[in-house]
Amino acid sequence: MFEFLFKYRPLVFEQGDFAFGAPASVRLWLAVAGILGVVAVATYTMAKGRSGRVDRSVMATVRVVLLGLVLFCLLQPMLILTSVVPQQNFLAILVDDSRSMQLPDADERPRSDFVQQAFTPGESELLEQLSERFTLRFFRFSDHAARIASPAELTFEGTHTDLGGALDIAREELSGVPLSGIVMVTDGADNSAEALTEALVPLQAAAVPVFTVGLGEESISPDIEVGRVELPRTVLEGSSLIVDVVVTQTGFGRRTVPVIVEDDTRILGQEEVQLGPDGEPVVARVSFEMDLAGPRRVRFRIPVQEGERVDRNNAREVQIEVRGEREKILYFEGEPRFEVKFIRRAVTDDENVQIVILQRTAENKFLRLDVDDADELQGGFPRTREELYRYRALILGSVEASFFTHDQLQMIADFVAERGGGLLMLGGRSAFAEGGWTGTPVEDVMPVVLEDSTAAPGETFAEVKVAPTPAGLIHPAVQLGDEEGDVADRWRALPAVTVVNALWDIKPGATALLTGTSDNLPRDQIVLSHQRYGRGKAIALTIQDSWLWQMHADVPVDDESHETLWRQLLRWLVDGVPEAVVAALDRETVEAGEPVRVVATVEDSSYIEVNDASVTARVTTPSGAIEQVPVEWTVERDGEYAVEYVPTEDGEYEIEVTATRGDETLGSDVTFLHTAPSDDEYFSAGRRTQTLRRIAEETGGQFYTQDDVGSLPEDISVTGAGVTLVEERDLWDMPGLFLLMLILMGGEWGYRRVRGLI
Amino acid sequence: MRRPSRASTALAVIGIPFIVGSCSAEREWDEPASTPLASTADPNLSPSNLSPAVIRTPEARPLPLDEPPGRHAFYWTRAIYTGTRNGWWGGRGNGAWATDYPKGDRQFLVVLERLVRLDAFDYENAVSLADPAIRHFPLIYAVEVGHMDLTKEEIHGLRDYLNAGGFLIVDDFWGSYEWAQFEYNIRQVLPGRPIVDLSLDHPIFSAYYKIDEIKQVPARGRGIAGRPTWERDGVTPHVRGIFDDDGRLMVVINWNTDLGDAWEWAEDPWYPLEYSTYAYEIGANMIVYGMSH
Question: Could you tell me the pTM of the whole model?
Answer without folding.
Answer: 0.77
